[in-house]
UniProtKB/TrEMBL annotation:
Entry keyword annotation includes Cell division: no
Species whose genome carries this gene: Parasutterella secunda
Name the UniProt record assigns to this protein: Tyr recombinase domain-containing protein
Zinc listed as a keyword: no
Family named by the database record: Belongs to the 'phage' integrase family.
Keywords for this protein: DNA integration, DNA recombination, DNA-binding
Length: 474
């Protein structure tokens, strides 16, 4: 009989150890994983057989391995401290200053970058937004290694100037987004160097205004998320609804999740997971059934599940979504799936759209993109025109593009832009945020009902009524 994956007492899989209790459970049990990583310290792992701490990290562009002792002689806290000491090493080289006659040791950017990434990881965890801290930091590592390190990696931290920043950003001309994200990594790094006391603020001679003016324009044409024209939305919904007869469970749940995102015009990140496992407090980033009120027909998404959790040092308001009858049917079909296929009644603490084969994980947002691509191919095979963005020929539509379609349709029907922005959870300026704090449910509900009726206008009413009757008891 194959060994089980490491999991907690409630049967939830654990992919990275977060505390001492989980560490003891892992070492004392018999699990499929031969070693597991530590959530708060990238590169640090514990071997199940030998109880040895292993650290794999990069130094001077070379991968380095260290053994840090064995548990319990070396505790989790001590292993993390040792790992950080290995990563943060003072550069032994010395420079001669024209002002000072004595030699002094200076830190290079490469010497402190791991400490900086640890700081960013902790700060992102404390923010409790639905951005995955580990994934965000890994993206920063990639941008640092590709764009920043070749220019300033071996530069003393006190010698970074405007010319170096321009030298980093100027070659990035293929994507405005890539340039802005790289600039953000560099800007945050400079801020951290100052307030952490690693460099005197007077030595940081960077003129960001000059940087912006000196950068050459990007050569690419900015592209938005591919969307579908709202005149073809009923055709798409009919196609999705027909897929509910497919036996493949992943496609069935993906179809329901896609309908839910379309009908509510929400970002997938509020209720669908990243493309990797959720650990620890990551469960707080995704909406649960406790947020859905069938009596009042309202789905309230908490601030920690929204894209922007904190606005100007204040927590954002919860997003209240009026639920149309069609949306309620979709939600109840999710409950029915788990009851009939798994024999499980979804509890208030469960995710709104659990993964089709794992109740402890939210369904993956990547499955929706795969489903749309599959539907596009099948449409072409049937002799149809597929699902392309009408403004961007050749680009297959994306789930996020439904938000643009929703806004276009609402405005074409004469609904208020304020109601549309409330529905999309768009952030206005400081004055709007201060004064427009009402959820406007009374005016938004007719808009959401009309949108749902339009989306299902091509679905056979008898079929929809049959589905509604089948979920009446949920």
């Amino acid at each position: 009989m194959p060994k089980k994956h490491f999991q907690d007492s409630k049967g939830r899989r654990i992919e990275r150890i977060a505390n001492e209790t989980q560490l003891k459970q892992y070492l004392q049990g018999s699990w499929a994983e031969k070693s597991l990583g530590i959530a708060i310290e990238p590169g640090l792992r514990i071997n199940h057989a030998t109880h040895a701490w292993d650290l794999l990290f990069e130094r001077n562009k070379c991968r380095t391995h260290r053994t840090l002792g064995k548990y319990p002689k070396v505790s989790l806290k001590e292993a993390v401290e040792k790992a950080r000491e290995c990563k943060v090493v003072v550069n032994p080289r010395k420079q001669t200053s024209s002002v000072q006659s004595s030699l002094e040791t200076q830190l290079l950017i490469d010497d402190v970058i791991e400490e900086y990434f640890q700081y960013r990881y902790k700060s992102l965890c404390e923010r409790r937004s639905n951005k995955d801290p580990y994934k965000s930091v890994e993206r920063m590592r990639y941008q640092y290694a590709k764009f920043i390190r070749p220019v300033i990696g071996n530069l003393p931290i006190s010698m970074i100037k405007t010319s170096h920043v321009i030298a980093v950003l100027s070659p990035i001309t293929a994507s405005e987004t890539t340039r802005s994200k790289t600039k953000a990594v560099l800007s945050k790094l400079v801020q951290w160097l100052v307030f952490s006391g690693k460099v005197d603020v007077d030595l940081m001679q960077i003129d960001w205004f000059l940087v912006n003016r000196a950068l050459p324009p990007c050569s690419n044409i900015e592209r938005h998320y591919a969307r579908l024209g709202y005149d073809r939305i009923p055709e798409l919904v009919e196609d999705i609804f027909l897929r509910l007869n497919i036996e493949k469970e992943r496609d069935y749940v993906s179809s329901l999740a896609l309908l839910l995102q379309l009908l509510t015009a929400q970002r997938a990140g509020g209720f669908l997971a990243f493309d990797r496992a959720i650990i620890g407090e990551g469960r707080m980033w995704f909406s649960t059934w406790s947020n859905v009120n069938f009596e009042d027909k309202i789905w309230t998404i908490p601030p920690n599940c929204l894209k922007v959790t904190i606005i100007r040092n204040q927590y954002a308001q919860p997003l209240k979504i009026p639920l149309a009858e069609e949306t309620i049917i979709v939600l109840k079909l999710i409950k029915k799936f788990w009851k009939e296929r798994r024999g499980i009644n979804l509890a208030p603490i469960d995710f709104v759209v659990p993964k089709y084969d794992d109740l402890t994980r939210a369904h993956c947002s990547h499955c929706l993109r795969l489903l749309l691509k599959q539907m596009h191919r099948e449409s072409l095979q049937r002799g149809g025109i597929g699902y392309h963005d009408p403004d961007q020929p050749g680009r297959i539509i994306t789930p996020h593009g439904f938000r643009s379609t929703f806004e276009d349709w609402c405005l074409s029907r004469g609904f208020s832009l304020i109601d549309v922005n409330k529905a999309l959870a768009h952030i206005g300026n400081k004055v709007q945020e201060a004064y427009q704090r009402e959820a406007l449910l009374k005016t938004r509900r007719p808009m959401m009902d009309a949108w749902a009726k339009f989306c299902f206008s091509k679905v056979d009413p008898t079929v929809l009524a049959r589905f509604a009757q089948s979920v009446a008891g949920y």
